[in-house]
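Task 17 of the worksheet. Students: predict the tertiary structure of the chain below and write it out as structure tokens. Keep your answer in the requested format; marks are given for formatting as well as content.
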Amino acid sequence: MIATNSPVRKRTEKIQRREQILAAAFEEFAINGYAATRLDDVARRAKIAKGTIFLHFHNKRILFRAVLRGFIQPLFSGFRAFLQECSGTSEVLLRDLLSRQYAEIVRNERACSILRLLIAESGKFPELAQMYYREIIAPGTSALGLVIDRGVASGEFQATGIRSFPQILAAPTVLAVVWVLVLGEHHGLDLDAYREAHLEFILRGLRGADAANDPKDTESCRSGEAS
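Model answer:
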């Protein structure tokens, strides 16, 4: 019985040790930044020998990449499968994706801490920016592109230049993160209302700017210019 359970127990312990290292690494990166973080300090915080880290992660760059993946990447994990299985409208899909963004990034203090670190240090360490692009931006824009394609195919959305720049759809999320990081303590946002305004904003753009082409609006603008 012991022999049968031993491999399972070892795998469980290995997973737990990895999570222990990632949690300690996050704290060190968040407090000290990427450059100043030492693996000795990570080991001390995790209460393990430094050599144990190298059994799981070959160097600090790989460790940071794992931290980045662990705290933010779940936002998009499984979204492609969800997209294929979902029988709802593209609006439903967009609402789901936005809800993930706000829950996993904007409202996630740990994710915001990682983003603060990336903003502060990517200039000195371009590989951090590239890592962020590969792990977060690329899968995020891919997910948004899939939703746009589905909406265009179903006739819900118009084929516009937005498809070439799906990151435009995530721009209000980025602003919300920066707002929370810089101004949140004294000028908080109603994130639920903000998220709904975000959804309304991008749906208007994807469905076509009918309001912008309204003759009354055009006439109003001309009247303003004439006066």
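Marker's comment: Residues 1-58 form a domain with the Arc Repressor Mutant, subunit A fold (CATH 1.10.10.60). Confidence is low (pLDDT under 50) at residues 211-227.
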